[in-house]
């Protein structure tokens, strides 16, 4: 058999296996995995290295305006380059609808922005204005072209849909085989805290962490899950930051609900004490939900190990520590006026590898699932996330022993800080391939601007989950009331 590339002598890891073997690639696809493969126009020596599915970053904000209209520092070029250096072969940033905007226009805008990507990409839509036209016309059109997931917010006045709006969205998503992602924080609890803190004159960055209570996340996660269960719609809870929230997800998974969740490295690596740094330094660590404490870190690791989370995602939301980012509202604004988010697309996988695999908290197979395979399955990237014949040759070759210190000077994003500055990490993705092309090799970028392709995604594969049928929406128990499309046909 003829190969364009053979990766030989490495240890191949999938979600269930780990074996010494070679990988043969032709026309961008994996065509053979075997003990020994001869030939190949190019042979990549992976001796002493791990051969893993390329990372899929399922949560990143790239070339996106926030609801208060602040543009992220990274566009699809810098964001994708940074992702590639972090071991990712593809990513799914958000395409955000602002109120009054048509979804068709949103997609047109992001199609233009994403032309610069060096890695494969798709979008999750953010829906903030679910008008009749959006629900019945535009969302079905978006699903038809392979945008099969979107995010809704339970917080922020400009984004929050209310419970009824969420039920409408969940129902439409279910009908079209899409998955709804949710930012779960109770808006009124946060606003109430904001008012009390403002009245007391407590506006320094550290009070951001106080203003968004753990209970606000826990309450909203629970509510979001009950809403999704009522209409038996798949739900993905993004950026879970609390032990209580994770425990609710774990418990509700037992109900059969098609329920998925992620946490992020910042909730494992940092705490609210980081917001209490000198002067305005704490602004670097403002993200929502906020950073918590050491006990939460331990609990989140416990849940990662036990399978509560499908993914560990970066929530890369890059706002520079200057007037273009964190401080668009002045040099010393009160915390609610500081842009919300931090970078992390390049450090997500090295951090998870170092703190997870190297420190024995998770297995290599779990690392593969959390970094790539689960995102491929849940978000419908059917040709990605696995090393097997027929799959895209999206591969990251890791040196599991190499050490390095995270430094801003080594980053490839457009940021002026990294929250993990000075941390020593073990494990480096040395060579990264996307559809068979080497895009990163030993610290050098090999990809050209624009070589990434849009991935039309499939409907979420829900065959492995029974789902949850509420009695009141079950036609055998509700006197035949035909009020929601709950017919068990999801797949
Ligand atoms: N939610 C995110 O997912 N990212 C940045 C800010 C936010 O509220
Ligand atoms: Zn969010
Ligand atoms: Zn986010």
Automatic annotation (TrEMBL):
Provide the family line.
Belongs to the metallo-dependent hydrolases superfamily. Hydantoinase/dihydropyrimidinase family.
Protein's UniProt name = Dihydropyrimidinase
- Cellular compartments per GO CC: cytosol
Q: Which Gene3D superfamilies does the UniProt entry name for this protein?
A: Metal-dependent hydrolases, Urease, subunit C, domain 1
For the modification N6-carboxylysine, the affected residues are 151
Which keywords does UniProt give here?
Hydrolase, Metal-binding
NCBIfam families found in the cross-reference section:
D-hydantoinase, PRK13404.1
Q: Which organism is it from?
A: Paenirhodobacter populi
Q: Where is the Amidohydrolase-related domain?
A: 50-400
One of the entry's Gene Ontology molecular-function terms is:
metal ion binding
In the UniProt record, the gene name given for this protein reads hydA
- Spell out the post-translational modification annotation for this entry: Carbamylation allows a single lysine to coordinate two divalent metal cations.
Name its co-factor(s): Zn(2+)
Top-level taxon in the UniProt lineage: Bacteria
Q: What is its EC number?
A: 3.5.2.2
